[in-house]
Design goal:
Layout: E1 2-3, E2 18-24, H1 31-39, E3 45-49, E4 66-70, H2 77-90, E5 95-100, H3 109-119, E6 122-123, E7 126-127, E8 132-133, E9 138-139, E10 160-163
Parallel strand pairs: 2-3, 2-5, 3-4
Antiparallel strand pairs: 1-6, 5-10, 7-10, 8-9
Length: 166
């Protein structure tokens, strides 16, 4: 991990420079609802659709806030995330949050992630978040009011905040 005082210059994440990248593959009917909830918190949402067959994600989904990128084939999660990150970078964003198609963001997610980043004494390469496991009916970590920061070797992809320059 890097200290905030390291030689690498990067802007701090903010409401204006953080975009979301969501990779889809045959999303369920509730995806549009979850997408709208994400769109309420972010300035830009990039959806990279890996569905090979025709998906219900159509051009009506696109707006000033949502960009839909359709792949002609399933290029896999990693390549689709790279495609979405490059699109966000080209549109002037410096940070991204990566989400799975079935992730439902909690209220004020972005505000909480920005507070956690600010509260950290380190500049992590990736800032992961707590999550609720529906199958097991519990959170990974007990939720706290104040930012709770732990150094981890791995985090899940969904809900991660990362700087595009790194």
């Amino acid at each position: 991990m890097l200290n905030h005082t390291s030689d690498i210059e990067m802007s701090l994440p903010s409401h204006t420079n953080v975009a979301v990248v969501i990779v889809t593959y045959c999303p369920d009917d509730s995806f549009i609802h979850r997408l709208r909830l994400v769109g309420d918190q972010f300035k830009l949402v990039v959806v990279v659709d890996n569905s090979v067959q025709t998906s219900f994600l159509g051009s009506q989904l696109e707006s000033e806030k949502i960009r839909l990128i359709r792949n002609q084939e399933n290029v896999g999660l990693a390549e689709a995330l790279n495609i979405g990150c490059r699109a966000a970078l080209e549109l002037g964003f410096e940070w991204v949050v990566t989400l799975d198609q079935d992730t439902e963001l909690g209220e004020n997610y972005l505000c909480k992630m920005l507070a956690a980043w600010s509260a950290s004494a380190l500049s992590p390469a990736i800032l992961g978040c707590n999550y609720y496991n529906v199958a097991r009916s519990h959170y990974k970590f007990t939720p706290t009011v104040a930012p709770f920061i732990q150094t981890r070797k791995t985090v899940i992809t969904s809900g991660c905040l990362m700087n595009l320059s790194t």
